[in-house]
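User: I'm curious what two different proteins look like when written out as structure tokens. Can you demonstrate?

Assistant: Sure. I'll show them one after the other, since each token string lines up with its own sequence. Here's the first protein:
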Amino acid sequence: MTYTLAEIAKQLDAKLVIADKPLCFEDSDINSLATLSGAKLGQVAFLANKKYLSQLSATQASAVIISPDMLSQCSVNALVMDNPYMGYALLANLLDTTPKVADGIHASAVISDNVKLGDNVSVGANSVVESGVKLDDNVSIGAGCFIGKNVSIGKGTSLWSNISIYHDVIIGEACLIQANTVIGSDGFGYAPVNEQYKWHKIPQLGSVVIGNRVEIGASTTIDRGALEDTIIKDGVILDNQIQIAHNVVVGENTAMAACSVIAGSTVMGKNCTIAGLVGINGHINIADDCVFTGMAMVTKDVTTSGVYSSGMPAAPNKEWNKTNARVKRLESLTKRVKELEQQLANK
């Protein structure tokens, strides 16, 4: 599928500025996106980070999505927008070549008799849809999925392949769930018994409720609640390989990067940003609009919005060994400082 630059400018609500050089026309055909350094004729690049400004002068792109303040440095056609990164996102959607999750009901899909199917529902090969399930209009279920009893999935939601949705889970409208994700598995609930029979499993009687426009990455796990539900609210985006434990609440529009975890019964505010490898303790409350940088460890309530960090960045091994040795001496150094302060106070 191709579009002219004029058509793209209209779709992006961008101002099209044609460069004064050969082969620069508003009816130039565009077929794909590329980076500034890798783009060729027929492709559009974008500049959203000034770190890549040095690549602008040499780009071979047919056009660049660019902000007004960078326009004077652009020697090719320009699609001028205040937010070039958003322009890139809109154009990526326009040129998206991702195939459908599924197309129609595959002959090998197993669907129970009392399932409620809306219009234009698709279920892929070897998927299982159990009794009491409700799939609203335009729901797409990929190959090899398991949809447990009494699950409800809202309009326009898509599940990629090999996803397991346990019983009684509720998923809202316009959600996207990537492959191998598990939603509604048992929370980690056990009662200690004795030394010989150490743990007694506690049935997890709650479920998972996912709002609208939620996106969940590949191989992510969201546990069902012990008594009440685990809740993921509208607009949340979760990366790959995330663990969300039982009875967690994640507030609206919060974003969470790969390999981060939230322990049980924590309530996360709305509009938070959680970087990769962040660990969040259980039974705590996090305020709205918090940012946790990579490898942060959150151990107690956070009541004020802001940026929080605690992870140790990598350093050369010799430097790290010296730092670690000094850390081990902190207790004795603290004691010596107190003794010196006391001596000075007694003079």
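Here's a second, unrelated protein for contrast:
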Amino acid sequence: MHNKIDVVIMAGGKGERLMPLTLNTPKPLLKIGDKPIIEYNTDHLASSGIKNINIAVNYLSEQIITYFKENNKHKIHFNFIKESKSLGTIGALKLIEHFTNDYILVMNADLLTNVNFEAVFNNFLSKKGDALIATIPYKVNIPHGVVETKADFVTDLKEKPSYTYYSNAGIYMFKKECFEFIPENHFFDATDLIEILLAKNKKIVNYPILNYWLDIGKPEDFEKAQQDIKHLKF
């Protein structure tokens, strides 16, 4: 996999919901157990054979750059992309001069996950998608009988149904040509790009994550991560 995909980790956010922890430390460098959040991701990518990693940085960026200069046991070649202003969850990709490969994995730095990146990539190839969104399946059980209607008429009765919804996990895969739709120097989220691709009838693959996944956004997520890491296998 290592010579087929490029990787971009988005690490520019302020982590405002985790203040005061993020007052002097960028969120990706907050420690879960004995190492920073982002390092779990770089280590996990390295174990998948990835040797080159782009990291988009903004808030307290020098700390992240310095950290990886001093802590790089896997001899990863890091390329830091500095945002001069906040560019959303994918806008910074326009600052990357060129990609080596046709497939690019984009992920948020503040995720704790042991998702199998090789499996994500193989799934993307086999489905011949233009882009892929990794998702977290949520099953919702309705405890009552549901009456389905259209206008004023009943169309169906369902007894205590369950529905599965998918929420965005902050891990994406794109074919390189998708990036031509990212505007220059604008705040632009990955979801904005996906919406454009959908409007252009591009093929977007849904990849449900069945492994461990946690988005560390709020203090309670941070606390949960501290407990979960004790048992988590990478």
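A detail about the second structure: The helical segments are 37-47, 61-70, 117-127, 190-199, 219-228.
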